[in-house]
Amino acid sequence: MEAIPPPPPRILIVDDDESVRDVISVLLREEGYNCTTASGADMALDIANQDDTPLVISDMKMPGKDGLWLLEAMRDKHPDTAVIMLTGYGDTEAAVDCLRRGAVDYLLKPPKLTDLIRAIERALAKRRIELARRRYQKKLERKVRDRTAELRTALRDIGVTYQNTLLALVSALDAREHETKDHSQRVVEYTLAIATRMGIKGVELDEIGRGALLHDIGKIGVPDAVLLKPGKLTPDEWVEMRKHPDIGFSMIAQIPFLSTPAQIVLSHQERFDGEGYPRKLARHEIHIGARIFAVADTLDAMTSDRPYRKGTSFGNAVSEIARCASSQFDPEVVRAFLDIGESGLVKIKEDMAARKAKLAAEKKTNANGNGNGAAAGNGDLNGSGNGEKPKG
Ligand SMILES: [Fe+2]
């Protein structure tokens, strides 16, 4: 079947002189163009507003609104329409002005038919290329937008996967010790609250949170006989136990997004006065995340019930931590901690318990669903203490 050729493009001829309009339109129709005429700029704009007009050929000098006015109006309202201007002899300056304002070409009146056709074909070709370029640009922009959205979703999924992997890791570790329920999660919450109070935010805050979550990851390498021993540890067993910051560090230090949390894991048993382990670091030699963690960990260890003792009140724990500022703890961290206040700290614990209860209820409701049930910050974890075990 033969392809149907596209209809000839419509050309709008604008001139106040009827004879000029007629001559041009008759000649162009004979050449196969589809011509419409207008006797003035206003009328031309009305026609362009109603129908698709790829090309306008307009006289410059017209009574009332002139060709320049029409050119500007077309640029403004129909930027895809090509405009060719017809100028009189000796009006070169005005012709150049037309080109500067966006006309694709100008011809001297009366135009020769060959010049006119050549100008029309050039203008239409230029317009076709420009439209194609714009279509391509739009397509490209849409593609970039789509890919960016896909990438963002993928990154978010990876972030959730990372977080869930870490939670699962800590959950496995906590399950081994069965000591203080939700300890790791609460310590993360307290750590983040103090860090935020100290003005830490963004990536640094995230890394400190991860360090707090993973602080005891190295206990995976401590034998059960030591880790789970109900009584006091012997000096040799203490040597084993005190390896856990180093073990934890070597487990995760090579993972790029955990290199900073690894520093916190390595330093989480250090004390501000240099009496901690494993490297006996003091003061600002200890990573800020580890200095904050030390306060958060002690608060949770003191206020949590243990099988062999009841947890103390938040008031007592806060006073004790304040007393140990500058010895066990960084005084700057303790200041931020005290700023949160007893009620603020209690609220953090209560909010977390409420979130977990809600999550547990949702999990029960969706018992047949496939939700992972371990959203960041409120995972179903059983916590473990860091240095607050009964053995020493
Ligand atoms: Fe620890």
Would you kindly provide a written description of the structure presented here, covering whatever features stand out?
By secondary structure, this protein is α/β, with parallel strands linked by helices. The protein folds into two domains: 10-137, 3-Layer(aba) Sandwich (Rossmann fold); 155-365, Hypothetical protein af1432, CATH 1.10.3210.10. The protein contains 14 helices and five strands. It has helices spanning 18-30, 41-50, 67-77, 92-100, 113-177, 183-197, 202-213, 224-227, 235-241, 244-252, 259-267, 288-303, 314-323, 331-365; strands spanning 10-14, 34-38, 55-59, 82-87, 105-108. Strand 3 (55-59), helix 3 and strand 4 (82-87) form a beta-alpha-beta unit. The radius of gyration is 39 Å and the shape is rod-shaped. It starts with 9 loop residues before the first strand and ends in a 27-residue tail after the last helix. Mean pLDDT is 86; it is low at 371-392. Residues 215-216, 244, 268-269, 386-387 line the site of fe (ii) ion (FE2).
Record the SSE blueprint.
Blueprint (H helix, E strand, L loop, with lengths): L9 E5 L3 H13 L3 E5 L2 H10 L4 E5 L7 H11 L4 E6 L4 H9 L4 E4 L4 H65 L5 H15 L4 H12 L10 H4 L7 H7 L2 H9 L6 H9 L20 H16 L10 H10 L7 H35 L27
Parallel strand pairs: 1-2, 1-3, 3-4, 4-5
Features:
rod-shaped; single chain; Rossmann fold; binds fe (ii) ion; alpha/beta; Hypothetical protein af1432; 5-stranded parallel β-sheet; 392 residues
- Report Rg: 39 Å
Bound molecules: fe (ii) ion
Low-confidence stretches: 371-392
On the 0-100 scale, what is the average pLDDT?
Answer: 86
